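cron nightly-structures :: item 1 of 1
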Amino acid sequence: MLAIDGSAEQIAIARKRQRYFEEYFERPLDITFVRADLDDYVPDMDHFTVTWLSSVLAYVRDQEAVLARIYASTQQHGAVIITDMNLWNPIFLYSEWQRRRKAYPLENVAEFSKMFLRKGTVGARYDRFEDHQYFTVTTLSSLLRKTGFSPFSTAYSGFAAPMVFGRYAARMESAFSRLPGVRTFGFFYLITGVKN
């Protein structure tokens, strides 16, 4: 297993978690940790089975180039799994509005709305404040196709916060995730692309 992060601190945390899971599963886990910037990193393998990108694509400069390198390093029938915050979730939008309002008190609604606009990168949305590129499942599916992957499945989650719904959170989560028109507003999306 290969684990990549640009932060030495995050890699140190991951190594601690590795020890925890080795004790839990009572066996060693073969993980190679690499500190690297995904915008520049070129994998020296061509047999990845699964690549997991969790809240990563929003922060890289050229998502298309990163996904193209992952595609080249993925074996036939391998997959990329991408999860991030859903741009269309009202709670995510409200929290981003609040965060930006505190950080940038002089900015107005027009500036906040630029988060929904495209900026050069096909399929992404632009956050002018921090140069993040947010996606919707539709735009990310288009980018996956452009880089060679076939979008395979999509799921949404984060409808029912456990601290609000308590022991009913799992049931609420399951119910909301099945409702057409509602399910696409989950706090998180998860999309899988396959190399055919």
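cron nightly-structures :: done
The two ends are 22 Å apart (CA to CA).
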